[in-house]
Specification:
two-stranded antiparallel sheet; alpha/beta; single chain; globular
């Protein structure tokens, strides 16, 4: 477990690490850069290298069974972002290990778990193989209109809460269908090579959420130092959370 500066969660938990770039949203992956640094520092989770064409040093897909019991040791309830440094539905993560992660989530109902994937097709194909606990929020990344089909894949899974992460937002999401979606996060890209976000893209996404009655969380404008720009959007900091919260 690690505390995090991500505004919409409390801690991160990485039972798997590593990934491969598969779409435009991956081009400036923070996790890939961080994994290279952690490998150089000798961090044991980041010693396997990935394919240099799609991944990098320290970013090869690796499962960490020794971390599965961690959530049961946490005394207070937490909102947990699962695999901030990986993708649970990557093809190289065994189905049996995904099931192990789901079992941990089910066995620790005091916590709320947020799983985010770009491998939405595999997620939907495997959905029937798992029991979906009520404290699991399932999300997909939607950075531009080319990956809108990920939302249809998300609708096909029986998650208690379904959410979209539209960050980095790289284009307008016109005609987005928010049926059966419980939460939307939007924001611009950060870092030295950030791709600017048009204000109309994020305004349009917010307006679609309002029309659909879906809570909207505006994370950041983006830029080299995104926090310096604040999170106000037309005079308001949009930090809504899903209406469905776990009660234990």
């Amino acid at each position: 477990m690690a505390k995090t500066t991500i505004e919409w969660t409390d801690v991160t938990w990485n039972p798997t690490t590593g990934c491969d770039r598969i779409s435009a949203g991956c081009d400036h992956c923070y996790a890939l850069t961080l994994a290279k640094r952690l490998k150089a520092m000798g961090a044991f989770k980041y010693q396997n290298d990935g394919d240099p064409r799609t991944s990098g040093p320290g970013f090869g897909i690796t499962t960490h069974p020794q971390t599965l019991l961690e959530p049961s040791t946490w005394k207070s309830p937490r909102t947990v972002f699962v695999n901030s440094m990986s993708d649970l539905f990557h093809a190289k993560v065994p189905i049996s290990f995904v099931r192990d992660v789901f079992d941990v989530i089910a066995d620790t109902p005091q916590h709320t778990y947020q799983v985010l994937t770009k491998r939405s097709l595999r997620m939907s194909k495997l959905a029937e193989k798992f029991d979906w606990p009520d404290n699991l929020w399932m999300g997909v990344s939607v950075e531009d209109s080319r990956v809108l089909p990920r939302i249809d894949h998300l609708r096909a899974v029986p998650a208690k809460v379904r959410f979209l992460s539209c960050e980095p937002l790289l284009g307008p999401l016109d005609f987005i269908n928010l049926e059966s979606i419980d939460w939307v996060i939007g924001g611009g890209e950060s870092g030295p090579n950030y791709r600017p976000m048009d204000i109309n893209w994020i305004r349009g996404l917010r307006d679609d959420c309002i029309k659909a009655g879906v809570p909207f969380f505006f994370k950041q404008w983006g830029g080299r130092t995104p926090k310096a720009f604040g999170r106000d959007l037309d005079g308001r900091a949009w930090d809504e959370m899903p209406l469905v919260k776990m009660v234990v």
